[in-house]
Amino acid sequence: MLDKVKKAIIHDWYAQYRGGERCVASITDIWSDFDYYTLVNTMDKEGCDKVFKGKQPYTSFIEKLPFGKKKYRSYLPFFPLAIEQFDLSDYDLIISSSSCVAKGVLTRQDQLHISYVHSPVRYAWDLYFQYLKESGFNKGLKGLIARYFLHKLRIWDVITANRPDFYIANSKYVAGRIKKVYNKEAKVIYPPVETNMFDISDETQDYYVTCSSLVPYKKVDIIVQAFREIGEKLIVIGDGPEYKKISKIKSKNTELVGYLDSESKIEILKKAKAFIFAADEDFGISPIEAQACGVPVIAYAKGGVLETVKGFFASEKVEISDRTGIYYKEQTVESLLEAIRFFKTIQQSFNKKSIRKHAESFSKERFEQEFKDTIEELYAQSKNDK
User: What does pTM read for this prediction?
Assistant: First the structure.
């Protein structure tokens, strides 16, 4: 239906081949004739090949500024201006993949703009005070400047809420924030997870695992501190700005393995006793990947994980064999330790095949069919309305 429709897809930035980039790649597996727009592209060749299918993306003036590729986040005050400089007037259909400013791109009344929102700008809204504190911007002149620009970003973000014709959210949790911030309804389509890449192991070894980019809001430090106290083996997969901090606070029973390729990561995931998750995440792909290996998840009970893990609290009496993990109530070391100790008493009751089956409901194939049907329906509806 949309094969002859001229299409563009605009994503905030491409830094690594992660959740948002995987969504774009999956969308362009549905229709391969997109033109690509983004503020900055620093992905490696493998990521570029998966997303852009041999094309070159159009990038903004941010990329041409001093250190624009390496330190593009420093130019945050210019992001709204930069996104509005893209001329998309030749396209009939524009899809924005947005966790920052992509949804604010300029379009005409006769164009259809659908925004797939990973989150409203978290450091300007719900993570505002946490961001200021963790970035060292909660006081002084730098703090005053940061607060001013984030204030301006919030104003721009609300002003541009009417620019998309339709919103799609990556979880019910994000749909709730879209309603809160923009007062807009959003259809929920969960992101694609390549569950076919993962498999169940007959062997379960004596360790726990977490996999995450090492940034403050992921709260990997809470996990590492908990394992200092409990003495169980923990493997931490991932890299990021907090790597040195985590290295300093870890104990001998915690192993930091850094970034791993998919094959190595899967080999560790599928033999773990459980996957540990401490973040308040919009959706969270890693817990689903763990479940695709038949591994139960111990998760902080907030955010997208409430939609992706069939968990329960220690105080609940449930049939464990059809559950995929357990929840803990507070984002603290003590609450996590309580959950781990409870898990050790019931871990044999989890069913690997049942956990794996649940993960398959978030597959890439499911996303592509659901997304295709939704976009075609919205496009047909827009033509009938005009």
Answer: 0.90
